[in-house]
Automatic annotation (TrEMBL):
Highest taxon of the lineage: Bacteria
Residue ranges of every copy of the Integrase catalytic domain listed in the record: 1-81
UniProt xrefs under Gene3D superfamilies: Ribonuclease H-like superfamily/Ribonuclease H
GO BP annotations, alphabetical order: DNA integration
Organism: Massilia cavernae
Lineage: Bacteria, Pseudomonadati, Pseudomonadota, Betaproteobacteria, Burkholderiales
Residue ranges of the TM segments: none
Single GO term (MF): nucleic acid binding
Alphabetical list of InterPro entries matching this protein: Integrase_cat-core (IPR001584), RNaseH-like_sf (IPR012337), RNaseH_sf (IPR036397), Transposase_IS3/IS150/IS904 (IPR050900)
Protein name in the entry: IS3 family transposase
Amino acid sequence: MVIDLFSRKVVGWAMAPSMPAKLVCDALHMAVQQRRPGEGLIVHSDRGSQYASAQYQAKLASHGFICSMSRKGNCWDNAVA
């Protein structure tokens, strides 16, 4: 799920029985299509393997987005979700 922290709206989502990198890439794609953000957007997530994957990181880079990940073992960094 991708949440726009300014509007607090869900702008991208995807569902699957597991959590592969493709799942988060699909959610990000939906959010980009809906909002059309510019380069420099900060995309925050936890440290899950799907967010650290080369596929997801390449998708962020292709849009010029900045990856921000929570600190290890600190649930408060991602408290919005």
